[in-house]
Design a protein that fits this description.
Pfam families: MFS_1 (PF07690). The protein has 20 helices and no strands. It has 543 residues and is mainly alpha-helical.
């Protein structure tokens, strides 16, 4: 990613996702990165009691370590987007892995809680953010037809790592103390660099050069035979060189594409996710204390989270498989709405649970619904904005979610302290999740689907990445005509120049159609292929 065509000076056309091959290695790397990003801030909580003793601080002070990690993971989204668009995914992930590892290693030598905030909190959190977002972008680059399944499998890394890192942290704490545990955890985070190293970009660099060479020979064959053919060839080459000199910088990729805010689907998704995050994380955070207050022993109360994690491991890949079905994938936004509705109703119905059996039933259903939400959230975003704008979209969405993360759980904790009643908190959290589900479903139906019916044709996504190859070739036709008329070239040379440029547009459109399976569209003059409607056939000028 981030490579530019040396001959044209702009980004090459995106290659077709392989939906397999090296993509499975990329999926494995994304699985590991997702596991570290979501599970690590929770896993470090096993060290909090020792930190409280050594630094003479309270639980709320040590809890800020996890909060800062999560805030960096969400709040630095736009920064990650800019770096990915500028340098590519692999270099950013390598730097992120080094930062995450060095943060935990430096944290093992700290002498006060503030130094822990800066090292384990800020540095490690930033490193994980620089790994998490690019890994999702690469996953969308390598998978298209199997993307829902790939997202589900990658999302399963969160519960798998949570169920393994927490016991591992307890063992390290008992044998080496918190300083030795932090040092070893820092070494484990170096695996993020390994995951970043396998995120190689798809090879698209030579595609356009090959097409240009082929088009030049075909243009030469179409020119008249005789002494004037050489004149036509030189005229064509001169026109192409003049066209390259006139290339505008608009073809370059933006560091952060704010044009996605003109996409109504993105606006609806962002608002829905903000409301969702306000209540989604509240129940699992308060569950253990809620169980203890109802008289459940400590060990059994802690086991409730393990139940959620175990169910979550299987729910995410299963939901990804369902979302990939042909008759489900076009309506994946509604499936996402259903998963949120399921989760919110689970919170509301379990608010009055007063025994351990009731809490276990709640954990089973919460694990299923929570896994569905986790498997679908990024798949829906990819479907809305496309893979080319996903790097900017996810950065902006995570930034907006960061405010919800800082508002939701802390507010719930204050209400518990004030009301001494967990039942109200579960009702409130469930209502917020249900509201987000209803908003997404109704807004998608009213604002998007009905809008498409009024227009009479399905809404098409605007071109991303500075324009498609077909548009670039069509602009070449116009520039060739302008250049020829400005320099008063002979009539036959002008015609040959325009023909050569139009042939380039035709070949690019044909190649694009073979990969995408559709018909060429646009204002330019392109050839009609088999399977296209008769109205889409565009007349070409005679020689």
């Amino acid at each position: 990613m981030g490579r530019r065509d040396p001959e044209e000076g702009h980004l090459p056309a995106p290659a077709k996702p392989p939906d397999g091959g090296w993509g499975w290695i990329v999926l494995l790397g994304c699985f590991v990165i997702t596991g570290f990003s979501y599970a690590f801030p929770k896993a470090v909580s096993v060290y909090f009691k020792e930190l409280m003793k050594d630094f003479h601080v309270g639980y709320s002070d040590t809890a800020w370590i996890s909060s800062i990690m999560l805030a960096m993971l969400y709040g630095t989204g736009p920064v990650c987007s800019i770096m990915v668009n500028q340098f590519g995914c692999r270099p950013v992930m390598l730097i992120g892995g080094l930062l995450a590892s060095s943060g935990m290693i430096l944290a093992s030598f700290t002498t006060n809680i503030i130094e822990l905030y800066l090292t384990a909190g800020v540095l490690t959190g930033l490193g994980m953010a620089l790994n998490f977002q690019p890994s999702l972008i690469m996953l969308g680059t390598y998978f298209d037809k199997r993307r829902p399944l790939a997202n589900g499998l990658a999302a399963a890394g969160s519960p798998v790592f949570l169920s393994s890192l927490s016991p591992l942290g307890q063992v390290l704490l008992e044998k080496f103390g918190w300083r030795g545990g932090f040092l070893i955890m820092g070494g484990l985070l170096l695996n993020c660099c390994t995951c970043g190293a396998v995120m190689r970009p798809l090879d698209t660099g030579m595609k356009r050069i090959t097409e240009k060479t082929r088009d030049k020979y075909e243009a030469k064959e179409m020119l008249p035979i005789g002494g004037k053919s050489e004149e036509g060839i030189s005229t064509t080459d001169g026109t192409m060189k003049a066209k390259k000199a006139k290339k505008k910088p608009r073809k370059g990729k933006k560091l952060l594409d704010f044009s996605i805010f003109s996409n109504r689907g993105f606006i609806i998704y962002t608002i829905s996710k903000f409301i969702l995050v306000l209540g989604l994380f509240v129940p699992p955070i308060l569950l253990v204390n809620y169980a203890k207050d109802t008289g459940v022993p400590d060990t059994e109360a802690a086991f409730l989270l393990s139940i959620i994690g175990f169910i979550d491991i299987f729910a995410r890949p299963a939901c990804g498989m369902v979302a990939g079905l042909k008759w489900v994938r076009p309506h994946v936004a509604y499936l996402f709405s259903f998963s949120m509705l399921f989760n919110g109703l689970t919170d509301i119905c379990s608010a009055r649970a007063s025994n351990y059996t009731g809490l276990v039933i709640f954990c089973v259903f919460f694990g299923i619904s929570y896994g569905m939400v986790g498997a679908l959230q990024f798949e829906v975003l990819m479907a809305i904005v496309g893979s080319q704008k996903f790097s900017s979209a996810i950065g902006l969405v995570l930034l907006i979610e960061a405010f919800a993360v800082l508002i939701g759980p802390p507010s719930a904790g204050r209400l518990v302290d004030a009301l001494k009643n967990y039942e109200v908190i579960f009702y409130l959290a469930g209502s917020e999740v249900v509201l987000s589900a209803l908003f997404l479903a109704m807004a998608t139906y009213c604002c998007l689907n009905r809008g498409k019916k009024k227009e009479g044709s399905p809404e098409k996504n605007p071109p991303t990445g500075g324009g498609s190859d077909t548009e670039e070739a069509e602009s070449d036709v116009q520039e060739a005509e302008e250049h020829s008329s400005d320099n008063h070239q002979p009539a036959h040379s002008t015609d040959n120049t325009v023909v050569a440029a139009r042939e380039e547009a035709n070949h690019v459109a044909e190649e694009q159609g073979r990969e995408g399976g559709g018909c060429p569209t646009g204002d330019g003059e392109v050839l009609a292929r088999d399977g296209c409607d008769a109205d889409q056939t565009v007349e070409r000028d005679s020689f």
